[in-house]
Amino acid sequence: MTEQADPERISDYTNDTVPIRSIIPIVAVFFVSIYLALSFGLSVNAIVKTTKYQTTYNAEHVGKYVTLIGDSISYMSQEELRDALPGVDLEVKGGMQFARYSKWAGESGMARIKKHALREVVVFLLGSNEGVTTEELKAFHDYVGEGHKIVLMTIYRGHRPDDMARWNDNIKSFAAEHENVYLMDWYSENADNPSRYLLQDMLHPVKSGELRFAELVRQSVLQALDIS
Length: 228
Fold this sequence. Notes:
By secondary structure, this protein is of the alpha/beta class. It has helices at residues 7-16, 20-39, 44-49, 72-76, 78-84, 109-113, 134-144, 161-176, 186-191, 194-197, 207-224, and strands at residues 66-70, 89-92, 121-125, 149-153, 181-184. Helix 5 packs parallel to helix 11 (207-224).
């Protein structure tokens, strides 16, 4: 005898299953959002990474809004950075480069940042070792997305003035073109009197330089979050 379908079971299954037609509007809104964003020059990556954050911040615990990646300057100043930015998500290592593998530090800053859950402000204190290109800056910005504030550092490397000038031109030009990018101007802090804050290598900070470095980073973060 042929088995007959149970009408009650069919009814239960139908009622528990979400009709395809109810999903169509959601899918349509998603693709329309992507189309409109692309029409206005935004990347799909920026859409996915854009997050709505709170509009008021606690300056006393400002570090909890910050992800910070840095090289040996930040490594030497990490105690001061933690004091200046309580609660900061900090990853620092000597020799780290912006987007290239280093035999001293291993993975680049770009590779490392992908392992972090990015906070509202992403501070990238890199470039002192082998500089940074416009293409690397663009790749970094595309990854982080428009939904975050970004702080970049101008570079001071006194024994490589020509390279330093080129690297800083790249950084300053890039910041000027992007509203969500802010500068921590370490170059200007040292240009007139390098021995005030730097060792004889004209790169790494003395103790007072570590303090000043952390102070400037904090000021840039407060500026990015519009905290007076």
